[in-house]
Amino acid sequence: MPYRLGKNATCTCHAYLDNKCLLTTQAKARKGWKKYDDIGCCYVLASMTNTLYKQLESYKIAKAILDKLEDMF
Question: Per its UniProt entry, which superkingdom is the organism in (predicted)?
């Protein structure tokens, strides 16, 4: 049986499963992932020629850029 948080408790321990806690944790993880993915896109796009940059600037995820580069070369 999962441990339930009290009404005013915060989500700091992963020893329990609470739907509200999981949603909060997932939202934080997604926000962190998005931040680092944006940084990765910037590094990848900044390190290429202008021609490649113009071809790949519409891709929003670093993995998509890398997959397209792999297909091209």
Answer: Eukaryota
pLDDT (tens digit, 9 = 90+) per residue, 3-57? 344 454 444 444 445 566 677 788 888 888 999 999 999 999 999 999 999 999 9
Tell me the one-letter amino acid at 17. Answer: L
CA distance 21 to 40: 28
**Concatenated DSSP letters for the chain?**
-PPPPPTT-----SSS--HHHHHHHHHHHHHHHHHHHHHHHHHHHHTS-HHHHHHHTT--SHHHHHHHHHHH-
